Amino acid sequence: MYMPASFKVEDRSAMLDFIDRWSFGVLMTLKAGVLEVNQVPFILDRENNRLYGHLARQNDQWKELDGADETRVLFQGPHAYVSPDWYESAGMVPTWNFMSVEVRGRSELLPPERLPWLLEQLSDKHEAAFDEPWKMSKVPPARLEAMMKAIVGFSIDIETLNGKFKLSQNRNPQDRAGVIAGLLTQPDENSRLIAQRMQLLQKD
């Protein structure tokens, strides 16, 4: 990942918080010269420094996870177009502000008996926002067993974290203020989220 010093994230805890919030990642594996890429919902286990996910058994990428030459996951958060008209400085050009974290690590398959735990962790995390969270116990055992046979679980031991938060840190305070103001006029949630993160940086 191209990493200008201005945008590099050094705070490991902040990167893990980001992964936990933006947990739908892009899984990339390289094995015997073959690159496989798929999008996967992940669960972060901070205590054991691991990521957990699953793939459809029909998805051949799972066969690459054990003994992969490289395994990486890219987590992407909010991103937004930045108009040069928002800068106080003249002669600027358009750019894009964004936030992402790359994980590199060693991947391995999970034994089938770990799948119920993995799926329960995943559903509990995302159902927590609802008044009446759905529970796996609602699925008939025979149906659940059949579904388990159709997926493969895996884990990734996190060895390296690379965070890149491009939030106009390389611009002067006046230009950053202009970008924040411009982003807050936009109708999309991504622009507002980027503006909010930039405001937090201003306070730091």
Automatic annotation (TrEMBL):
Lineage: Bacteria, Pseudomonadati, Pseudomonadota, Gammaproteobacteria, Oceanospirillales
The species this protein was found in: Hahella chejuensis (strain KCTC 2396)
Gene3D superfamilies referenced in this protein's UniProt entry, alphabetically: Electron Transport, Fmn-binding Protein, Chain A (2.30.110.10)
Full protein name: Transcriptional regulator
One Pfam family matching this protein: FMN_bind_2
